[in-house]
Write a structure and sequence with these properties.
Elements: E1 9-18, E2 21-31, E3 36-40, H1 47-54, E4 62-67, E5 70-71, H2 72-80, E6 83-86, H3 98-105, H4 115-125, H5 138-150, E7 156-160, H6 168-183, E8 187-192, H7 195-201, E9 204-209, E10 212-218, H8 219-225, E11 227-234, H9 240-244, E12 249-255, E13 258-264, H10 268-275, E14 280-286, H11 290-297
Parallel strand pairs: 3-8, 3-9, 6-7, 7-8
Antiparallel strand pairs: 1-2, 1-4, 4-5, 9-10, 11-13, 11-14, 12-13
């Protein structure tokens, strides 16, 4: 008889109100063991409130949080030993160096910081360990925060806007670290408002809006129905009707030598074939910001 695998994170009707202000409402969320779960939403959507509820830093108005199959309210001390957490607003002892911060935090965990793994993270992220925290740049402060979250090799990583302040090279190395950890069985809860970033690293995403979980999707499903913004500059006038006839294209603005449109992924090949009939001065592909994605796909 097969043993049923428990979800690493499960919330049941999780609700939090700050007086009359809603933080989250009836949140039912499941995060599987060994996946990178993206938690998406614009500022004020309820992402950080949810994370604080998961960590028992604030208490729910109603509902329940289970981590590793255990009720956080009753077992939070044991649960937190196996969690690595990086908050959105990182505040550490300013006069301590990265090395002193590591030494200071190490006794908080039952297992000692694995020195070989810790050294690997320091090398891969190029962490500055000998400078007082207050003298570090924003990006180097973030590296120390990531190092502290990873150092004890937690079973579950909870990351709130983890790449804030990191340069592109460090971001890409951080993504590779997350994939390496995932391949070794670590579960990662990755909160962000950056949709392209989440697409790079996550297996599934949960989308928050106004304190509610409006959808949970795989990255493949998200890509299938999300539209791209296409801005085209022609060297000569074009026929607008050539583009109106393409299924999956919505024209937003059209001028003599300029075309601005939304395109579904299914329409890209035909769009490129049509553009081949014209001389193109420049073309830009981008994604709508997350709020526009919400308004297009998830508004009632």
């Amino acid at each position: 008889m097969k043993t049923k695998l428990l979800d690493e994170i499960e919330t049941k009707n999780l609700t939090k109100y700050y007086g009359k202000t809603r933080g989250t409402e009836n949140l039912n969320l499941k995060v599987k063991k060994g996946e990178i779960f993206g938690f998406l939403g614009p500022n004020g959507a309820g992402k950080t409130t949810t994370i604080r509820l998961l960590l028992h830093l604030i208490y729910p108005t109603s509902g329940k949080v289970l981590i590793f199959g255990k009720d956080v309210k009753k077992n939070y001390t044991d649960i937190l030993y196996d969690i690595g957490y990086l908050p959105e607003d990182l505040n550490l002892y300013e006069n301590m160096s990265g090395k002193k911060l590591l030494d200071f935090s190490s006794p908080f965990y039952k297992k000692k910081n694995p020195s070989k793994f810790k050294e690997e993270i320091v090398e891969r992220l190029k962490c500055e360990l000998n400078t007082p925290f207050k003298k570090l740049s924003r990006g180097n402060k973030q590296k120390i925060g990531i190092l502290l979250a990873l150092a004890h090799k937690p079973r579950l990583l909870i990351l709130d806007e983890p790449t804030s302040g990191l340069d592109p090279l460090t971001q890409n190395e951080f993504y590779r670290i997350l994939h390496d950890l995932k391949n070794k069985g670590t579960t990662i809860f990755f909160s962000s408002h950056n949709l392209p970033e989440v697409e790079k690293v996550c297996d599934r995403i949960g989308i928050m809006k106004d304190g509610n979980l409006v959808n949970v999707e795989t990255i493949e499903a998200l890509r299938a129905h999300r539209r791209k913004i296409v801005e085209i500059h022609f060297q000569e006038p074009y026929k607008k009707e050539d583009f109106c006839e393409i299924t999956g294209i919505e024209i937003i603005e059209a001028k003599d030598n300029f075309l601005y449109l939304y395109a579904k992924s299914s329409a890209i090949n035909l769009l490129i074939e049509t553009l081949a009939n014209y001389k193109i001065k420049d073309i830009y592909f981008s994604y709508p910001d997350l709020e526009k994605v919400f308004l297009k796909y998830y508004e009632k």
